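Box 3.1 A note on notation
Throughout this textbook, protein chains are presented in two layers. The first layer is the amino acid sequence; the second is a token string describing backbone geometry. Keep the layers aligned when reading.
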Amino acid sequence: MTQIQIDQSWREVLADEFEKPYFTALIQKVKAAYQAKPQQIFPKGSQIFRAFDACPFDQVKVVILGQDPYPTRGHAHGLCFSVEPDVRPLPKSLLNIFKELQTDIGKPIPQNGELLSWAQQGVLLLNSVLTVEEGLPDSHKNFGWESFTDAVITKINAQKSNVVFILWGAKAAAKASFVDNTKHLILKAVHPSPLAAHRGFFGCRHFSKTNAFLRMTQQQEIQW
């Protein structure tokens, strides 16, 4: 079995996935990339599966799906859209998320962009692709990560109920096909990037809609 450092609850849920040939090949490609350019692959190796470590399987009640890690040095740390607390200025997509939060639920724009507190409340901050090369968005998109994250969503769909899936952008929306909308809530909008946000991300009210659904299903709301 491929040795993966990941939260125990996820290790059990994904055990069969770790045995598959594509996953072995994926890990070999990732290791080779880090060995070839040790300072230019993000996030740090120890943070690749951080989204899972920060949000164990039994605690997942919301999934926010990103594309791949920030390709800017010092930004990516294993949680989609999140950055280390000292990063300034905030990435534009994250700033747009905070602007929508302010409009939707009245929360002031935070001074730092770390979203760990969301993860600790049951929000799985998952990218479709978990590694990237510096300055090259989508550079690891054919490594096999998509098959792995498809499997993650499939497991959540099958083994849990009343999970909110927040899908921003076309790539994230494509994952909706793995989710049964009769047992979960799917929220879709365009990506929060500056190129798209004004075409339907602003005003989507996904944060208040998520909490309304959690209330309705007797779950603890997220303190965004």
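Strands lie at 41-42, 62-66, 123-127, 132-133, 164-168, 185-189. The first strand starts at residue 41 and ends at 42.
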